[in-house]
């Protein structure tokens, strides 16, 4: 059998996406003799505001064989158990989207269905009473997951990280270079194409020419390769998600290190608050149709606590994704591939998931078209799933106090999301495909938080004895609280095990 393997990969652009690619590929391709080069321009600053993550960040660190505590120390990270949404349903109300499981399924029936029958029977436990992550967040508790335990609570929580994106890129750069990644500090002047419309080489401003079999575009919104050279096009989703700008600013810490992100609904969008060990990240994602830059800066500065550590930065963006994220011998990664507003902190997850799909569909120099097509189908499904989940937060809101939120009352909803919400409203079911980021528990947590309650539950749930279910719910809730209260406080855990060591 004739083999035609890749001999080289060139990553264009550093930042979080570029160095994540270098780290993961240097791990996955060990022993392959594929040379990996990363070109990083000293003239192009990284955006560096993607500071909240989802639990897949832990899978990334594990695959790369990166020590978690060392990474937390190096990136000034804190731990994240979910997101608290303030004022989304209406001003003055809040709800929580926890990571991990909520309750335990029984006899093949989803826990939400059992809980729903219990509620309709007049028994009272909160949905979040059965979420280890939610109760840990409420009580400011945290501990790293241990090997499998007998107690289901200890097996059911998961966590992500809040991290300094610039420090993370620096850590992964050093890690990758120790693994043999070659770093070239230069700016790309010209992209040279061959007769097939594949990228042949890059001409740099230092006089060097870099040829490679495959290129990974991590050049941010510009998309120097995927758009500038290959003209692949962009599918906009602004008709579904009208927020098109963000303003970001860092502040001194003014309170404890809470183990969750706070997303607060505002007049024309929402603000974030992300606690790191040495500072707090803040931002306002808004629609320029309903808010000017000056108004957004004023809103954010009035909302933050702690002294400002710099001037607010305005970042324009266009929600959507490239028409193709892999085309010929080029893969777009990070902001070069698309952008979904950071409401559920999915940017770093999409970098990781794109790389996972790429490794599974890894090409050789024959570049069969069906491999590229299969990859693009997979990653497009991931983008659509996250898009729909973000839209869910807007289209179910009860707010109508500003023009922006009144627009959300009648906003267009994709058919894929409409069908999902309709099934849930009828009988509390969520169609879920294995491998998707957001679990049934995540969907139920947002819908419960927005007070979208199904008309009825699955008819076979009536086979469960009412008293048995009530006792089961009480035991579940009690088990969660008794387990969580014995965990250390989040601040104390960080102080004792992984306090920041800034260089």
Could you walk me through the main structural features you see in this protein, from its secondary elements to its overall organization?
Helix content is 36%, strand content 19%. It has a 7-stranded mixed β-sheet. By secondary structure, the protein is an alpha+beta fold. Helix 1 (15-28) runs parallel beside helix 7, helix 1 packs parallel to helix 10 (347-360) and helix 10 runs antiparallel to helix 11. The protein contains 16 helices and 21 strands. The longest helix has 27 residues, at 369-395. It is globular and about 75 Å long. The model has no long low-confidence stretch (mean pLDDT 95). Strand 8 and strand 9 (199-204) form a beta hairpin. The protein has helices spanning 15-28, 56-63, 68-74, 111-120, 132-138, 152-156, 165-178, 224-229, 293-303, 347-360, 369-395, 403-409, 415-427, 440-449, 466-484, 490-497, and strands at 8-12, 35-40, 78-80, 82-86, 94-98, 160-162, 182-185, 188-193, 199-204, 209-211, 214-217, 234-236, 245-251, 261-266, 269-275, 280-286, 313-316, 320-322, 326-327, 330-332, 338-339. The chain folds into 3 domains: 8-51 and 164-236 and 319-385, FAD/NAD(P)-binding domain, CATH 3.50.50.60; 82-157 and 414-491, no CATH class; 245-316, no CATH class. The N and C termini lie far apart (52 Å).
